[in-house]
Amino acid sequence: MRAIATYSNEGYQDDGDGIQNDERKIELEDIKMQGTINNEDYNPYIHRNVKHPLTNTDTLVHLLKIALGTGIFAMPNAFNHAGYVVPSLTYPLIAEAALLSGPNVLHKYAVPMIHVVNAFTLVYEIGTCCIYIVFMASNFKELTDYFFDTNTDIRLIMLYMLLPLIVINWTRNLKYLAPFSTVGTLITIASISIVCYYIFREPLTFDDGKQAVGSLRGFPFFFGNVLFALEAIAVIMPLENEMKSPEKFVGLTGILNRSMCLVIALYAGIGLCGYLKYGSAVKSSITLNLPQQELLSQAVKTMISCGVFISNAVVAQVAIDLAWTQYVVKRLTEHSNKLLWEYVLRTGIVCITFLLAVAIPNLDLIISLLGALTLSMLGLTMPAFFDCCTRWHLTFGLSRFILITKNVVIAFIGLAGLVIGTTISMNEIIRTYF
Fold first, then answer.
1. Into how many domains does the chain fold?
2. Is residue 402 part of a domain?
3. Is 67 in contact with 265 (CB distance < 8 Å)?
4. Which pTM value belongs to this model?
5. SS3 letters for the chain?
6. Residue 248: inside a domain
7. For residue 120, how many other CB atoms are within 10 A of its CB?
8. Is residue 424 in some structural domain?
9. Which candidate in 65, 338, 342, 353 could, as Cys together with 130 as Cys, close a disulfide (CB 3.0–4.6 Å)?
10. Which domain range does residue 231 map to?
11. Does a structural domain hold residue 9?
12. Rounded mean pLDDT for each run of 10 residues along the chain, 434 residues in total
């Protein structure tokens, strides 16, 4: 017998308050297993009713905009920690369905697992928005310090950014952010091109103290940086859920693979070459290494900060939607002013990210902490566990042994990154700020 989770999107309608009220329910059916699963295919795409569907192009642009965010400019610093050789070598419902499809003993943990995944996702999304604020403020500080010959407090710059951030995060639908994401993606591509110009305008060298293999202590920072840079896991499912043609999202030539192949190549290239260019002098974002006095450098700092400003709204939308649909709206009565409470939530989340950025205005430390704390679980440990659960009744003997061994190794790497990376990052934060 096997528990199969099927999803119903009935009731997935716009509730009139902007955010769609997702009332997907999971229905369990026990079916007999006789070596294969009954193949009367259930097509979940037919049952979708999305009020403002994203086109394939919209989805690709959103995904590239998120993936090509601040992380790519932090990759040279990640290589600084690990050396230049070694680095070269709706999620919650999926979690519930995976446990319900696995061994019977895990079924009772399916619903609690939703809240565990939600918690890690919320921390990740809020932390990412916090990183965006620190990134923008760091670049704007470089500009203001140069033009006004002053040493502006980075926290004051963050305060100036607070109101515009609140306003853009009042946008209530991803569809309306697509044009801004398109502009932001073009800005990011232009910025990467300019950074590449600065990296390659002089020959790269392997000398001047550049390490082939970094110190053991630096690897947790590298681990956190890389996870943060490459993981867009919490945005992937919401984007797929909003698509007009979701069946084109996956597959060998699907939108996800196309975007991720490009992203990985860019990240590895920028990371390695940026480190070979600046060596141990590379900063938390390579844009901060660019010469302040040159107009092109000033332009890239301004452009990428504007691009990240747009990304902030896309990332925050995930946290807002999760908090609203899963926790806030369920506690409101039918007489409550839902529109007002939605704007209160949006404003509150922006203010939380602002306060965290003010408390720890260090891009390197906060990226490493966030990557180790959340993405080691969301991107490594949990997927390995869910893969075991989902395929538990489909594998036997040697196949099951290989499945378990592979996923145990992946989960161990994730847990090691979580414990070691979080501990070292927290120690550095305490030593620096407290």
1. 1
2. no
3. no
4. 0.74
5. CEEEEEEECCCCEECCCCCEECCCEEEEEEECCCCCCCCCCCCHHHHCCCCCCECHHHHHHHHHHHHCCCHHHHHHHHHHHHCCCHHHCCHHHHHHHHHHHCCHHHHHHHHHHHHHHHHHHHHHHHHHHHHHHHHHHHHHHHHHHHHCCCCCCHHHHHHHHHHHHHHHCCCCCHHHHHHHHHHHHHHHHHHHHHHHHHHHCCCCCCCCCCCCCCCHHHHHHHHHHHHHHHCCHHHHHHHHHCECCHHHCCCCCCHHHHHHHHHHHHHHHHHHHHHHHHHHHCCCCHHHHCCCCCHHHHHHHHHHHHHHHHHHHHHHHHHHHHHHHHHHHHHCCCCCCHHHHHHHHHHHHHHHHHHHHHHCCCHHHHHHHHHHHHHHHHHHHHHHHHHHHHCHHHCCCHHHHHHHHHHHHHHHHHHHHHHHHHHHHHHHHHHHHC
6. yes
7. 22
8. no
9. 353
10. 52-361
11. no
12. 38 41 42 41 59 72 63 63 52 82 89 90 89 91 89 93 93 76 80 89 80 72 70 63 72 77 80 86 85 89 86 84 88 83 94 94 84 84 91 89 93 90 88 84
